[in-house]
From TrEMBL:
InterPro entries associated with the record: AMPK1_CBM, AMPK_gamma/SDS23_families, CBS_dom
PROSITE patterns in alphabetical order: CBS
Protein name, entry field: CBS domain-containing protein
Pfam families found in the cross-reference section: AMPK1_CBM, CBS
Domain CBS: 142-202, 323-379
SMART domains in the record: CBS (SM00116)
Keywords, in A-Z order: CBS domain, Repeat
Organism: Zizania palustris
PANTHER family, per the entry: AMP-ACTIVATED PROTEIN KINASE, GAMMA REGULATORY SUBUNIT, SUCROSE NONFERMENTING 4-LIKE PROTEIN ISOFORM X1
Length: 453
């Protein structure tokens, strides 16, 4: 339990106090000098509270405030035991401290207990403070290489450059508008391959030599806007500014289901030159957040929690953990076209490839499709006839062998976050240590959604 004093310093004839920990029952406040005060002995947690001053509900605007779903504003406070204090004898009644002239109210210990839910609330509060009080400028390196493609480039050349530079996405520059107008991604390459190989009116392979990226973006809306592929709609470029706080930037990435967001000088095109100053990504934000949390001794304890005991990720039914989504895996014999359909329609970045026993063999990622751009391999294959195993072999030939990014159910949260903060790592496959049977998946989006609640 922790003693916490609540103060109303702005005058009045009489004042009362209520909070989420009192069941919003009012308690009178004692006058100490020119301030009204009340002290509560509370378990650690995040709480909301208000003051009733001369019959009018008030909040202290100098303290953190929150607004509920009904628009009601309350103050919010984090109570923790980072700095221990001498606790009074437990009591469930209000008593008057004559020395201080302060009403001292001790909550019964059995009314609120230190539970996992409280620990999560405290941890998320610390995360929110870090994200809200730092800008994306603090995360993105001041000097870094940024690849940008001219939207007038032929599609074939653009994807060859992306492959050669190891890029799965790149901003597009519109010379006419003198600004960044969109992003070219591995998903675009998948859609182009599908369009080339379907029995509809499509571009010939030779026309890709002249067909520009901007023209492809326009054609994509017509070809795929009304198909079974996840809805493709025209929308303005999602972007942020260097001055935006990290929380807003992260939410922009998560809510728009994108992997990164351009950082522009301002919300309007800048005629003085290139407006793009960087790309904000969730791995970069998670890396920054981990370093900040580990600087706080009180923030480290929760990071040592094993993921098996946390409400995070997608788990196989045989583990006994409940999941909102179904864990999906594929066999090596699965047609590549079916694999790509699943990745696009379920908005997945990668999917585990397992043997007949469910043991992990490899992971096929959406970005792996870029290997087909090497020497125009995609012009010589049929997606429906190529298996995932064959596609992975092509990947090995182009980029060499690789190691799957995995973790164990006993891995700690900080170990998972540190792996997910590595560029290019979008999700970790949870495996049994000996059999390597897939138990679940934790994606970067899963981890960050848990962090902010």
């Amino acid at each position: 339990m922790v003693l916490r004093c609540f103060v109303w310093p702005y005058g009045g004839q009489r004042a009362s106090f209520c909070g989420s920990f009192t069941g919003w029952t009012e308690y009178p406040m004692g006058l100490v000098g020119a301030e009204f005060q009340v002290v509560f002995d509370l378990p650690p947690g995040v709480y909301q509270y208000r003051f009733l001053v001369d019959g009018v509900w008030r909040c202290d605007e100098a303290k953190p405030c929150v607004r509920d779903k009904y628009g009601v504003i309350s103050n919010e406070v984090l109570v923790d035991n980072t700095h221990p204090v001498v606790q009074p004898k437990p009591s469930s009644t209000r008593v008057m401290s004559m020395d201080e002239g302060t009403v001292l109210t001790t909550m019964p210990p059995d009314q609120l207990t230190q539970s996992s839910g409280v620990q999560i609330a405290i941890f998320r509060h610390r995360v929110s403070v870090i994200l809200l009080h730092n800008t994306i400028y603090d995360v993105v390196p001041v000097s870094s290489k940024i690849a940008v493609l001219d939207a007038r480039l032929p599609v074939k050349q653009a994807f060859k450059i992306m492959h050669d530079e190891g890029l799965s996405l790149v901003p597009l520059w519109d010379d006419h508008q003198q600004t960044i107008t969109g992003m070219l991604t591995a998903s675009d390459f998948v859609l182009i391959l599908r369009k080339l190989q379907r029995n509809i009116r499509v571009l010939g392979h030779e026309e890709l030599e002249m067909h520009s990226v901007s023209a492809w973006k326009e054609a994509k809306l017509q070809f795929y806007g009304r198909t079974d592929v996840a809805a493709i709609k025209r929308r303005p470029l999602i972007h942020v500014k260097y001055s935006d706080n990290i929380m807003d930037v992260a939410l922009a990435i998560i809510r728009n289901e994108i992997s990164s967001v351009p950082i522009l000088k301002s919300s309007l095109p800048d005629s003085s030159g290139m407006p793009l100053v960087g790309l904000a990504t969730l791995p970069g934000i998670v890396k920054f957040l981990c370093s900040k949390l580990q600087e706080q001794p009180e923030g480290c304890s929760f990071l040592q929690t094993q993921i098996v005991s946390m409400p995070i990720g997608t788990w196989s039914p045989h583990t006994g953990k409940a999941s909102n989504r179904q864990l999906k895996t594929l066999r090596p014999s699965t047609p590549l076209n079916s694999c790509l359909d699943l990745l696009l329609e379920d908005r997945l970045s990668s999917i585990p490839i397992v043997d007949d026993n469910g043991a992990l063999l490899d992971v096929y990622s959406l970005s792996d499709i870029m290997a087909l751009a090497k020497n125009d391999v995609y012009t010589r294959i049929e997606l429906e006839q190529v298996t995932v195993k064959h596609a992975l072999e092509l990947q090995y030939q182009v980029n060499g062998p690789r190691q799957c990014h995995t973790c164990l159910s006993s891995s700690t949260f900080i170990e998972v976050l540190e792996q997910l903060s590595v560029p290019g790592v979008r999700r970790l496959v949870i495996v049994e240590s000996r059999s390597r049977i897939v138990q679940g998946i934790i994606s970067l989006r899963d981890a960050f959604t848990f962090l902010i609640g």
